[in-house]
TrEMBL record:
InterPro entries: FAD-bd_oxidored_4_C, FAD-bd_PCMH, FAD-bd_PCMH-like_sf, FAD-bd_PCMH_sub1, FAD-bd_PCMH_sub2, FAD-linked_Oxase-like_C, FAD-oxidored/transferase_4, Oxid_FAD_bind_N. It comes from Geodermatophilus obscurus (strain ATCC 25078 / DSM 43160 / JCM 3152 / CCUG 61914 / KCC A-0152 / KCTC 9177 / NBRC 13315 / NRRL B-3577 / G-20). PROSITE patterns: FAD_PCMH. The keyword S-adenosyl-L-methionine does not apply. Its cofactor is FAD. This is FAD linked oxidase domain protein. Pfam families: FAD-oxidase_C (PF02913), FAD_binding_4 (PF01565). Residues 33-214 form the FAD-binding PCMH-type domain. SUPFAM superfamilies: FAD-binding/transporter-associated domain-like, FAD-linked oxidases, C-terminal domain.
Amino acid sequence: MTADLTARLRDVVGPAGVVEDPAGFLTDWRGAYSGTAAAVVRPGSTEEVAAVVALCRDLGVAVVPQGGNTGLCGGAVPDASGRQVVLSLTRMRRIRDLDVANSTITVEAGVVLQTVQEAAAAAGRLFPLSLGAEGSCTIGGNLATNAGGTGVLRYGTMRDLTLGLEVVLPDGRVWHGLRGLRKDNTGYDLKQLFVGAEGTLGVITAAVLELFPAVRSTATAWVALPDPQAAVDLVGVVRGSAGDRLTAFELMSRQSVDFVLRHGAGVRDPIADVHPWYALVELSDTLPDAGLEAVVEAALGESVERGVVTDAVVASGSAQVAALWALREGISEAQNSEGPSLKHDVTVPISAIPAFVAATDRALAGALPGVRVVAYGHVGDGNLHYNLSGPQPRDDGAFRARAGELSRIVHDSAAAFDGSISAEHGLGQAKRDVIADYKSPLELELMRGVKQLLDPAGLMNPGKVLPG
Ligand code: FAD
Ligand code: MLT
Ligand code: ZN
């Protein structure tokens, strides 16, 4: 079966499109999920993707779409059966069009996010999606997970940045929806079905994305805070004075920063004293001399007087800005160096963050004394990565054995504060079963109905998103 399948796939995509050494496509970035595959193919065009999908449908073989394989919940990793085909979009990396007057860029699914940012910048525009994996994640993966990152509070998620899509449906037909329109009220907004579907409804092959005016000045501050309530207060103060010029507000616990200081290369603490929490605050403007430093300094000065801010550093120069961002963006990788981690990408109303953190910290300390809470994230959106590492001395086996129970505590707590168990990473295989406890039967029925309509044979990324 495998030899025959590989031969037929080779007929479709040519020898260059069939991967000889599939190892890098079968395990995720964290090493948390692994599988095997009947074949790994890298089609070079929409027509080839459609032909691969149609062939797999005819043979009853499941397809797992994959981009940069940086996803954090196992969505791009095949199962252990060895019967699935991994369809990597990484050869589809053409920028098809950049329309400055329409402020849009049309790109293929395998284009790396950073490449899109750079192409927009070269045209005097901004593509605002920004996240730690931007050097390797792809636009297709960003769309399929509805990625968020650090600019959401100003520019929205990938969903908000998408005007049109081209999609290969599970039966091999191509939906040509590459429109660059801001307004189009002609019935259901079909593109939004595929954004955030994590490859379970079809393979995205290209997209029209919205561009924004280029940023010409920024002010970046590293702020020490006594507690999460201070962070919530500070978001309000800075938003009040800077309005839409507030483009990032990231919160980090001392534990998170400690991990980066321990494992990151060339990083150092911007503030000598140790504080329990920090925020990275960034203002941006399209004007070259917008006086942003004065705006951020005034907001911080007022907050120091009110006891909301304990200490702060406003970056001077691009090297210091990069150093502050390296501390923030280095947390994921640094936590990997501390052994197995449990990722909880929760979101609650911003106002509920302090109570959520207090209640969840308390519940976890009772369940597993010494568990290390690595809480950080996009607090301006109400999105905390409330991740866990095991107690020390390390006992990975014992920590893994408690994983289900510990995650249940965090997720129940998010639900108790009217939150969600995934803000931006998705469900993948990591949360596909537990989501059944947090969505209503009607929501699950509607989701299954959509899946049944588009993929009645269940061959598009099975075992992901929908509960078994
Ligand atoms: P993959 O991992 O390859 O795939 C992810 C999912 O999308 C899978 O279900 C896959 O089947 C599906 N898929 C991929 N391509 C297609 C396609 N063309 N058509 C249909 N389905 C497809 N995420 C955030 O949202 N915000 C963050 O701040 C953030 N920070 C991160 C930091 C680090 C260090 C890392 C490692 C990851 C981070 N992520 C973050 C998670 C991840 O990078 C994003 O989810 C990213 O959007 C995934 O893109 P990818 O190309 O790697 O997708
Ligand atoms: C981030 O914002 O750094 C990632 O989305 C969080 C994570 O890796 O858990
Ligand atoms: Zn994040």
